[in-house]
Write a structure and sequence with these properties.
Blueprint: H1 8-40, H2 51-81, H3 87-121, H4 123-157
Helix pairs in contact: 1-2, 1-3, 2-3, 3-4
Amino acid sequence: MTDRHETPLERADRNFVELLQELRVTQTGVQILFAFLLTLAFTQRFTGLDSVQRGTYVTTLLLACAAAILFTAPAALHRALFRRGAKRLLVDVSSRLAGAGLVLLALALTGAVLLVVDVVLGRAAGVAVAACVLAFCAAVWALLPFGLRRKAAAARRGPAAGPPPKRPADPG
């Protein structure tokens, strides 16, 4: 039992529903990005892209496609495992797929920004802005949750664990 007074199966059901809610949000974004990328190849300006820009485009398109596949995989897994007593496994695998999807989405967003800024402002600006996008994704999607998990774990330990050790004072 947990603090919620739910059975392991109830918890797995709740976790899966929560995961699907998260995926609905990310799935929409990745599908819009993918659709946008699909249309680019059919614009007049596309023929003017250099080989680096075309490579960036194809890579970004494939990253967005792969992210969409990973974000929809939990629904396919659920269909395949429905009524097979594998809900906990479904939740665990789906969570990993969603995490991998977020990594690919961050790379796809970075590639899309790189391509657009490269075309509009030039390669150096594109690389700089794309690096900022990737860093921002890493900060918000990885570093922030990591920090919050550590803070929550420290709060669960309570004051009995004591404060973190103090660093020596700076003599200068």
